[in-house]
Amino acid sequence: MSSRDDDAWRQIVEHYGDAPEFPDEPADEPGPGADSEPGVPEAEPFADPADEVPELERFVPPDPPPLPRPRGARLFAWLGIFGSPVLLLVSLFLNLRLPSTISTLVVMWFLGGFLYLVYQMPKQRDDPWDDGARL
Known about the structure:
4 helices
């Protein structure tokens, strides 16, 4: 290292921990908040931006439509997707031994329901350039 670098490091080490000196700020004239400290701005009370907007201008979103209820084969498939794992877990926790035919049918119900729901999905989009984002 050069002597200039050594001098710079030596100055840093000598002045380590010293408080920085700031130039004095001009004194503010006493005003409404004269009892507060000089140079410190008076704190404004918290104001909710929603209070400033009149009640008539607030946006109220419409109620969402009700969820569609599956019927027929689709209901049976959804029950297979959610019901069969629950049935198997309950039998496991209660230490119930299901016959092999019943457990095989439950597993097939799950797989069949999954495959049916995947098969029933739309094959094409209405708009191929639509990325799914909605405002």
